[in-house]
Amino acid sequence: MAYVITDDCTACGSCIDECPVEAITEGDIYKIDPETCTDCGACADVCPVEAINPE
């Protein structure tokens, strides 16, 4: 189960540096590649608006 980023994302960039497998891509709302995500939760731990949740 991968994590997903909701529409609450503010594109602050906090999660990008935390992802150990570089599964997150930038955009107006960031996206997590479910094939690459290892479900570690590091991104969710640092998201200031709690926009990242388990799928």
Structural commentary:
There is one protein chain. The protein is an alpha+beta fold and 55 residues long. It has one domain: Alpha-Beta Plaits. The protein contains 2 helices and 4 strands; from the N terminus they run βαββαβ. The protein has helices at residues 14-18, 42-46, and strands spanning 3-5, 24-25, 31-32, 52-54. The strands form 2 sheets. Strands 1-4 form a two-stranded antiparallel sheet. A two-stranded antiparallel ribbon has the order 2-3. The longest helix has 5 residues, at 14-18. The mean pLDDT is 96.
Helix content, binned percent: 10-25%
Morphology call: globular
- The spatial strand order of the largest sheet comes to 1-4
Helical region count?
2
Overall CATH class: Alpha Beta
What is the terminal separation in angstroms? Answer: 6 Å
Output the CATH topology: Alpha-Beta Plaits
Number of strands: 4
* Largest sheet: number of strands, sense, barrel closure: 2 strands, antiparallel
Calculate Rg over CA atoms.
9 Å
- Provide the CATH architecture: 2-Layer Sandwich
Produce a short descriptive summary.
The chain is α+β, with helices and mostly antiparallel strands and about 55 residues long.
List the SSEs and their pairings.
Elements (H helix, E strand, L loop, with lengths): L2 E3 L8 H5 L5 E2 L5 E2 L9 H5 L5 E3 L1
Antiparallel strand pairs: 1-4, 2-3
Question: What keyword list fits this structure?
Answer:
single chain, 55 residues, Alpha-Beta Plaits, globular, alpha+beta, two-stranded antiparallel ribbon
